[in-house]
Amino acid sequence: MPRSRFSGSLSWPRFDVVIDMGNPSLNRTIDGFVMIGTVAAARVAAEEAYHRINHLRKGTFPGHTLHDSLKKMCKEGAYWGTIAELYVGMEYGMRRIRGKSDWKNALLGGAVIGALISVVSKNKGEKVIEDAIKGGAVATAAKFLNCAY
Amino acid sequence: MPRSRFSGSLSWPRFDVVIDMGNPSLNRTIDGFVMIGTVAAARVAAEEAYHRINHLRKGTFPGHTLHDSLKKMCKEGAYWGTIAELYVGMEYGMRRIRGKSDWKNALLGGAVIGALISVVSKNKGEKVIEDAIKGGAVATAAKFLNCAY
Fold it and tell me: Do A84 and B141 lie within an 8 Å CB cutoff?
């Protein structure tokens, strides 16, 4: 008995962007900016798409245009990309200075970036120290979770 | 001419805790709990120490006892440890099912954990989806930042 069979597979889109600045430190920081900027922009895109589908289902107007969504994507992408760029540069610098690659680089890098974000957000005094501790803890936890196995 | 020289070095404390449950999956999740629980407890300890030093400098009373600080450390450690345990278990499960170790495991694991935290925090509907997207993005970014180099 002849049978018809359908076989399909869903594959993720693959984009490779290669930027060579001729310096390993600069290459890493640019790489960090592109990678994390893309993740942040993708997060905004997913959220915006979900909201639009929700509005379509309810038959209501989204309240903001596609242009607003694209602007938000670029803004978030640039913001988180810059933070990642700084973190990668700092972690790489510490690795070179200390000559070791371990969680302490992540802790110090995270603390400096946490304090920096806090200062840029116009916080002062105690809040900056708290954010530095938080940043160090988050970076160390991320390092442990991803590099222990 | 004789010269006296002082040489000192500050080394980080080193604790090795080995727990063998006889199952690689269980070992990893317990390991995740201990590691991230320790990081979370250390964060609270650093914050509390900073606040105490601040109060001592100003000559004011901290407002809460050492017992309160220890309780907060245990609570935060257990909370973040449990989240890390679930994430590690989920990521490892996906790696075994998919047969691959890449950022997609982190994305899916982060999304599930994000949604779970949201539901436990008594959020509903749209907020849960938003938190799932946020969780997936954070886990993917952490994977990229720590495993790309």
Answer: yes
Q: How far apart are CA B112 and CA B74, in angstroms?
A: 25
Q: Is residue A12 part of a domain?
A: no
Query: A-chain residues within 8 Å CB-CB of B80?
Result: 141
Question: Which domain does A34 fall in, by range?
Answer: 22-82
Quick one: average pLDDT of A6-29?
64
Co-location of B69 and B108 in the same domain: no
Say if CB A37 and CB A81 are below 8 A apart.
yes
Predicted confidence (pLDDT) at residue B17 exceeds the cutoff of 70: no
Query: If phi over 0 gives left and psi between -120 and 50 gives alpha, with beta otherwise, what is residue B63?
Result: left
* Cβ–Cβ < 8 Å for A76, A44: yes
**ipTM metric:** 0.71
The partner residue sitting opposite A36, judged by closest CB among B31, B141, B149, is B141
**Whether residue B80 is found in the same domain as residue B27:** yes
Find the helix packing angle between B24-58 and A126-147, rounded to 10°: 170
Tally of domains in chain B: 2
pTM: 0.73
User: Is the residue at B42 inside a domain?
Assistant: yes
- Is the same domain home to B30 and B62? yes
Q: What region, left, alpha or beta, does residue B122 occupy, with left being phi > 0 and alpha being psi -120 to 50 degrees?
A: left
Q: What is the DSSP letter of B5?
A: -
If asked whether residues B32 and B61 sit together in one domain, one would say: yes
